[in-house]
Design brief:
Elements lengths: L2 E10 L2 H10 L4 E2 L6 E2 L9 E5 L4 E6 L4 H5 L10 E6 L2 H11 L4 E4 L3 E2 L1 E7 L5 E7 L2
Parallel strand pairs: 1-5, 6-10
Antiparallel strand pairs: 1-6, 2-4, 3-8, 4-5, 7-9, 9-10
Protein name: VOC family protein
InterPro entries: Glyas_Bleomycin-R_OHBP_Dase (IPR029068), Glyas_Fos-R_dOase_dom (IPR004360), GlyoxalaseI/FosfomycinResist (IPR050383), VOC_core (IPR037523)
Length: about 140
């Protein structure tokens, strides 16, 4: 099982303002390739802008403090943002977390079509996503 940094998600009340900042101040480009297809009717219907430095994506997501309640999940990745890693074997990674005693919320594909996602906390309460692209 491999992990690779995939994106950083920032939650905001104003997606357009944050998108403009990252494009104009930091010179990031609008990302158009390899973007997730959001499942807007399964629990998170917020707006998201996608920018990149050419290697790592940033997902600038509309804050939604109720997404966890609507999906029945404890960890809410769009309340304050998260860092995301892509894996080639999510089941093995879940087993690894269980062996380490780390609880996680299994969002499956409730937020993104074609991605199986889990979210958990690091020891300081930062949200981490690990996802696998599935058919």
């Amino acid at each position: 099982m491999k992990l690779k940094l995939h994106h950083i998600n920032l939650a905001t009340e104003n997606v357009e303002r944050l998108d403009t900042f990252y494009r104009e101040v930091l010179g990031l480009k609008e990302e158009s390739e390899g973007l997730p297809v959001l499942e807007k009717k399964k629990g998170y219907a917020g707006d998201v802008a996608f920018v990149s430095d050419g290697a790592i994506q940033m997902h600038l997501a509309e804050r939604d403090v109720m997404a966890g309640f609507r999906t029945g999940q404890i960890v809410n990745p769009v309340e304050r943002g998260h860092i995301a890693y892509r894996t080639d074997d999510l089941d093995a990674f879940k087993a690894h977390l269980e062996e380490q005693g780390v609880p996680y919320s299994d969002w499956a594909n409730a937020a993104v079509a074609g991605w199986r996602q889990i979210f958990f906390y690091d020891p300081d309460g930062n949200v981490i996503e690990v996802h696998e692209v599935s058919e």
